[in-house]
Amino acid sequence: LRVRANVLASAGTCVRERERSRRMAMRRASMEEGKTAHDVEEPPPAMEDVVEEPLVEQQVKLPQSEAIMQAIIRSSKPLPMNPGGPDLPNPCAWPTRVLQQVSDRLVPWRWCRWIALAIFVGALTARVVLIERQFFVAYVLAIYIFQQFLLFISPAIDDDELHTMESGGEFRPFVRALSEFLLWQRSFCSTGAALLATFADFLDVDVDGHALVMYFVLLFFYTMRQQIQHMIKYRYVPWSGSKKGSNKEKGKKDETYDV
Fold it and tell me: By the 8 A CB rule, do 150 and 223 touch?
């Protein structure tokens, strides 16, 4: 009985192994059939199809920013300067351009410009003294020019930044809040406007000229005192001195202009 049981057990094991081998063979065959169906190569495209493909697809794709720049360069249509609405002609464009061209030509003639301004101010002063009127117009002009002069001798940076510049030993030129050319330009235009205003009788305000002169002198000295204290506190001067150890060649002139 034991021998018979062992024979039956071994026979059952052989049957199971044979069934497992048959299933593995069937699964392997099905997988090979699936690969064969997927690996079928498509026929190569005809030469005519290759020739007819657009050239745009064969070009190298550029990044978005470079593509935009290339489109702007190749485009012959002018870009709209006012995207929010239609481009309207600017009536002040031509006078502004002419004024800018004249200003650019006057920049190198520094001494001539200031001599012309001095003559202009002298003519205004002489007219006010001769007619003995329009003292208020002259006072307003003096206050305006003095305010522009304060901007000229003031730094363009804030007081907090001046604190950080005290500790550093690096040479830093003085940067003005108002350039020399703008000071002259505003003074010249305001003097011309004041000279024209002296011919308008309705602008003549009845005031005491001596009182206005005294008030302006007091205001001048008080404001300049505050400005000098500010310079001493933050250790700066309203001009750019030459750097130590810089070029000291004789006859060498500084061709830069404060515009």
Answer: yes
Q: What is the helix (H) or strand (E) element at residue 140, kind and residue range? A: helix 135-152
Q: Which of 22-26, 76-80, 201-205, 247-251 has the lowest mean pLDDT?
A: 247-251
For tokens 């600017």, what's the residue? 90
pLDDT computed for residue 259 by the predictor: 66
Please give the Cα distance from 133 to 139 (Å, whole number).
Answer: 12
How many other CB atoms are there within 10 angstroms of residue 215's CB atom?
13
In the three-class reduction of DSSP (H, G, I as helix; E, B as strand; rest coil), residue 99 is classed as helix
Taking a C-beta distance cutoff of 8 angstroms, is the pair 134, 198 a contact? yes
Report yes or no: 245 and 169 within 8 Å, Cβ to Cβ: no
Radius of gyration of the chain (CA): 45
What's the pTM value of the predicted model, to 2 decimals? 0.59
Token output for 131: 């007619």
Distance of CA 155 to the CA centre of its chain: 20
- 3 state DSSP class of 155: strand
Place of tokens 């199971």: 16
pLDDT digits (tens, 9 = 90+) for 31-56: 776 655 545 445 555 444 444 444 44
What local confidence, expressed as pLDDT, does residue 211 receive? 92
